[in-house]
Amino acid sequence: MNLNRRTALAAVAAFAVLSTPAYATDWPTKPVTIYVTTAAGGNTDIMARMAAEFLTAKFGKTFVVENRPSAGGIQATTQVVGAAPDGYTLLFTHSAAILLAPLVQKMPFDPDKRLTPVTNVGTGSQVVAVKRSLPISNLSEFLAYAKANPKKLNFAAAGTNNISHLAPLLLFKRTGVEVVMVPSRGEPQAISDLVAGNVDFYFGNTSVLLAQREHPAIRLLAVGTGQRLATAPDLPTVSETVPGFVFASWNGFLVPNGTPNEIVAKLRGAIAEMVKEPKMSARLLSLGILPGGQSAEQVAAAYQNDRRNFGEAVKAAGVPAP
């Protein structure tokens, strides 16, 4: 009996080992839900919907987008970390919801430890914009002018504990500049204040600010990504003036820990294929987004940079631990 029992258990275990890769290889065999941490209409949502449309066409199964906006993306993230790691519940978000949120608010779990990044659809760039009446023409001159006039200049923050708030503080800390923060209710107000001359500096979404590039009241100085944008190649990166400074918005897929490697690889490969399509790439670039499709190693490097930036910026902002 004992021998038979051991034989039966071994057979069950062998079947489980053999069947899991086959199941993963067949993915997807039914609809897939993509939970998005932001509201409809923004860049993160746009990228999620582009991916859902592509994946639906590629695999012949419906990929459904569910927007669950909330502080720190906690609602959408909760849906995914509590789901079965079978590839049918995906998270689409920006890296701040994974790496920054736990630093500034209480969360019932650490998403950085419960989720596995797959790849990004794109990296959203931010751009330094200043009011044109300032006696400067580039970022280096702005920083020198601000240093010569401590606390006499100000910058708009479209909310708090986000890139528009933390990236400038990190930039000013690294360059020894003192600039006063002016809180705004959101990006539209921040840009209106900049255009009206009420604020001197704003670090905002490239997709919005590039459309204002010819406005007589503002000047665009530099982008926050590690490389220049194809849609604005004459705009230097911030890192060309402040070496090592890269502050951008990684937007991509994550899955619950334990999701089979075969599914992760299949999803990553599909997104890499998607961003190489000329129409998809052109659409991303038109929004000021660098097309993604990063490898696992590239994602890890991007997360390491964001983790370091967010930690340093939160400290510079004096945000208390949650």
Protein architecture, described:
With 322 residues, the chain is α/β, with parallel strands linked by helices. It starts with a helix and ends in a 5-residue tail after the last helix. It is 46% helix and 20% strand. The chain has helices at 2-26, 43-59, 74-81, 95-104, 111-114, 139-148, 163-175, 187-196, 206-209, 261-276, 278-286, 296-317; strands at residues 32-36, 63-67, 89-94, 115-124, 126-131, 154-158, 180-184, 201-205, 218-223, 249-256, 289-291. The longest helix is centred in the first third of the chain and has 25 residues, at 2-26. Helix 4 (95-104) packs parallel to helix 12 (296-317) and helix 7 (163-175) packs across helix 12. The protein has twelve helices and eleven strands. Strands 2-1-3-10-4-11 form a six-stranded mixed sheet, with helices on both faces. It has two domains: 7-123 and 249-317, Bordetella uptake gene, domain 1 (D-Maltodextrin-Binding Protein, domain 2); 126-240, D-Maltodextrin-Binding Protein, domain 2, CATH 3.40.190.10.
Task: Describe this structure in a few short sentences.
This protein has 322 residues and is of the alpha/beta class.
